[in-house]
Amino acid sequence: MSTTYGTFPGSRPRRLRTTPAMRRMVAETRLHPADLILPAFVREGISTPAPISAMPGVVQHTRDTLRKAAVEALEAGVAGIMLFGVPEEAKKDAAGTAGTDPDGILQVAIRDVKAEVGDELVIMSDLCLDEFTDHGHCGVLDASGRVDNDATLERYAEMAQVQADAGVHIVGPSGMMDGQVGVIRDALDQTGHEDVSVLAYTVKYSSAFYGPFREAVGSSLQGDRKTYQQDPANSRESMRELALDLAEGADMVMVKPALPYLDVLAKVADTVDVPVAAYQISGEYAMVEAAAANGWIDRDRAIMETLTGIKRAGADMILTYWATEVARQL
Ligand code: PBG
Q1: Which of 37, 114, 147, 315 has its CA 20 to 30 A from that of 327?
Q2: Are 206 and 179 a contacting pair, CB within 8 Å?
Q3: Residue 9 resides in a domain
Q4: The domain containing residue 281 runs over which residues?
Q5: Ligand 1 centre from 210 Cα, in Å?
């Protein structure tokens, strides 16, 4: 016997891998610029962009450079931009009031980007208090220092309204409070913003990979978010979060982080009939950049492989700090 193909002598999967053209033809997953969403940080009171050391290549934008980044993303064919505001340190307080100030940095940034790109690029905003609170939590605290779910919901309702007033197309509640999608949907509907969509951070794990983001937004957090973000050990719980968010009116759902949770992403994508997003977060970005900077991996191939894997697992949209760069290559 010269081969071990005894049963199926003609079956040789390698035939379909012989040339680049052949591989291209049979590829099951293709990335497209419109799959990509660029998360971007804008910081109040700076006159030049501030590099984020743990995210080489990513900056905290000035209002001006944010506008330019939005135009570049649009020109590259990126689908949307997700905005995060970084207020002046002195403006942080226990209730995160800068997050609901119509002239707060995030609202100002939404108006700036809207004025620049209009409806050409989908404009999204992080709807969460952690960037604006002096304790760094995603909500307001009760007397014992615990994040108060229902008091936080009232703050989120206000945030939804000011972000929508500023012209955002989609709000992205990321705080993992129970009931947040329903409260935000009601607040939007009651203030004449029926057309503003909710991209729910439905499945959001308490992850070590958010580390670099804390630097990116100048977070004041001491401790962790384990009482409101999900435990990495759990999968079934994600289905419960998903059912609740859909019942509360989520237009789109997100799984976050991406790479360590592709199993959950695949399950969500198989379950729902709404668009599914995945967020390739700061630590996922930093990991690849750091290894590449050391010459340990091929940066460009690694980036494409991670994004292809996320799409293959079922994501319709991917939030990635490489969005503009990758869109240009596609
Ligand atoms: C909360 C929020 C976080 C991220 C997006 N929205 C931080 C957190 O939950 O601790 C993380 C994004 C990233 O790490 O790239 N406002």
Answers
A1: 114
A2: no
A3: no
A4: 29-329
A5: 6
